[in-house]
Design a protein that fits this description.
385 residues; alpha/beta; TIM Barrel; seven-stranded parallel beta sheet; 17 helices; 7 strands; globular
Length: 385
């Protein structure tokens, strides 16, 4: 949609210095064409014969928006794009793409496959002038201390480790949606329940290293409640992701009873990504003062169709409860696309509402700034990086 009628709106959205409140780091090593294709999908399965991972909204968006930053024309063939990428140092690719995102605060989840990514210090060196802070993944903290003692001491080991980790963190994250789903007992587990679950889990660990991934619902509930106790914003992945999860159990409406119990604590719950349950998340954000949402992952993967997702996320959710994220992991293209597609989508949606006479330009600009930056600054507070 043309934005010529309201250039001040387009310029304002383009100028928002974003806070990416949930993102991962970028690749430590170069990638070839097949590996790059694998990184542009949430699936961990190979594409079937006769199909290509590059025939997707996200891959088309890479060619459209990232190619010019590597000296190519928009829509350059993917083979040319990856060749141009490979001709540059990995850190140079990252500097060009990350620098063009217009993000000056990155809250990075360090809990997933960190060995394939650069650390926070190296990431920060690729985005000079930006703040880089950590989001601590609760499940990773527990898994790191699991074998340091017996089952009776596991709860205390976790509590101590979390206290240390949370001291320098901007927020916490849980992937209970992946490990179990949201159909869990909302109450805080008792010490006896935790000891029993700890014994059960550590016994499995002794028999099978693959059991190191915590998926016991009692232990996952323990993590959530200790996370709430810190007072830090607690991020929960909701909605679609890789084939590990059961999407039916990732509807955030299933969290309603737990959210009611958390509300008196004063801790904020950040529903991440949410698609295709972003309307349900919008209801929860309206109903509960401590619930927030974003549609980060969905914006990248819906590409040119993402304005519709952004508009749907703004149907019911209060505008002070919606945040920006990219959820980018790995290729810096995803970090850039999150920002570019969000700006394009927000400009299109807001322009449509202004043109219809339903919104003023001033209100549209104010809401864009709330979502892109101000809400996150309010919820996450002062910068720790």
């Amino acid at each position: 949609m043309s934005t010529d009628s309201y250039p001040e709106l387009a310029e304002a959205v383009a100028g928002v210095r974003l806070v990416d409140h949930h993102v991962h780091s970028c690749l430590a090593q170069p990638v070839d064409l097949p590996a790059f294709g694998d990184l542009l999908t949430e699936s961990d399965r190979p594409a079937p014969a006769g199909t290509s991972p590059f025939d997707s909204q996200v891959a088309f968006a890479v060619r459209r928006h990232c190619a010019p930053l590597l000296g190519l024309d928009p829509h350059a063939p993917i083979e040319e794009y990856v060749a141009a990428r490979a001709a540059l140092r990995t850190d140079e690719v990252d500097r060009r793409l990350l620098g063009a995102a217009g993000v000056d605060r990155w809250l990075i989840d360090t809990g997933f496959r960190g060995d394939a990514l650069v650390d926070l210090q190296a990431f920060g060196a690729r985005v000079p002038g930006a703040y880089v802070e950590e989001v601590v993944r609760l499940e990773t903290v527990l898994e790191q201390v699991a074998r340091d003692g017996d089952a009776a001491g596991l709860e205390e080991r976790f509590r101590t480790a979390l206290c240390t980790a949370a001291g320098g963190a901007a927020g916490l994250k849980s992937v209970i949606a992946y490990r179990y789903g949201f159909e869990f007992d909302p109450s805080r587990p008792s010490a006896a329940e935790i000891r029993t679950a700890s014994s059960r889990w550590l016994t499995r660990l002794d028999r099978d290293d693959a059991a190191a991934r915590v998926d016991d619902p009692v232990l996952l509930r323990m993590l959530l409640w200790y996370g709430v106790d810190t007072g830090l914003p607690l991020q929960l992945h909701a909605g679609f992701g890789d084939p590990d999860l059961d999407l039916r159990r990732c509807d955030p409406l299933l969290l309603a009873a737990w959210l009611r119990l958390v509300e008196p604590s004063g801790s904020n719950v950040m529903l991440l990504h949410c698609y295709p349950f972003h309307r349900q998340a919008g209801f929860l954000a309206q109903a509960f003062p401590h619930v927030y949402l974003d549609v980060g992952l969905a914006v990248n993967y819906t590409g040119a169709a993402s304005p519709a997702v952004l508009a749907e996320a703004l149907e019911l959710a209060p505008f002070g409860k919606v945040l920006y994220s990219s959820d980018a992991w790995g290729p810096a293209e995803l970090h850039l696309l999150g920002a570019v597609l969000w700006r394009h989508g927000m400009t299109e949606v807001l322009t449509r509402w202004v043109r219809a006479g339903e919104w003023s330009v001033a209100d549209a600009i104010r809401v864009a700034r709330l979502i892109g930056r101000d809400n996150a600054e309010r919820v996450y507070g002062g910068r720790r990086g």
